[in-house]
Structure prediction request, 344 residues.
Amino acid sequence: MPYHICTPHAARWDAFVRAHPDAHALQLSAWGVHQSRFGWRPLRVAIADEAGELVAGAQVLMRRLPLGMGKRAYAPAAPLFSADEEANALLWQALRRCGAAFVKFEPCNWYRPRPDLPERLLRAGLRRSPETVQVVRTLIVDLRGSEEEILRRMNQSTRYKCRLGAKKGVTVRQGDAQDALRFGALMQVTARRNGFRARPPEYYQSAYQAFAPSGEVALLIASHAGQDLACAMIFRCGENAYYLYGASSDIERNRMPTYILQWEAMRWAKAQGALRYDLWGIPDADWETLEAEFERRADGLWRVYKFKRGFGGEVRRSVGAWDLVNNRLIYAAYLWYVRRRGKG
Prediction:
């Protein structure tokens, strides 16, 4: 079957992404719109069949390299492959001509594990990247079944804490764009407490505003006596929902607002038709190591794992980051920079 390369408009692209078995919010046009406000230029590269139906593609984010070295590109949760390898081969050809010295891909295989994926990427000429952007390992909560069944899959302590917030007077509401800006300010508090660097408040407001028109985002806010205690920004695409951002204040922590917040996020995701809820990010270690060490570790994502482990999720690992190299000289300079930064 003959195929052709195209650059679909946003609505056509989003319909393809949502219907794909590896659908992900980071491939929706809204994510490209959001990132365009922070120095990236989104480019949608797709393959269509004779009838004009999209069968494969990738949204890549383009950015100029310093010193006039050209452009680099990044494609989170991509490519979205076709069942026909002829279409996939044409997609790789198109991506090699996208104008970037190299393209970093982080394929999504958390929701539909594909053991053959690394081999397919190697055959296409990609190489494992020394630098990842998104988290490598995560926990996926199954949202199928009744709410009581979902609660029963949690451990006893977490289930108790999910119900405790309401007993302690904590309520959860949905916020708007102005709340998203305040959420960004609360992220600064969370970052200082937990030792990581947060984005500026405008970044989180931008993400919310990009997805709000389609209804594929919810900003949930847990409050007590008129005071906001914790917030979570949840995104959705197709059958998947994602806990990308969360923040909490330093006050009233005994009311366990983050637990009722996660439970309400799962309820929202389920009501929107999601079958799974991605808790988005835990330490990159196998389950046995995670369970053996979480009590004594507090560095990196270990404290986060201690919180997330009780929600009954299944540990999944991605295949990591892979680079498609179009200019070997510039790519060598990039590798030198990554190694030098790692030693710093």
Observations:
- The domain at 137-317 is CATH 3.40.630.30 (Aminopeptidase).
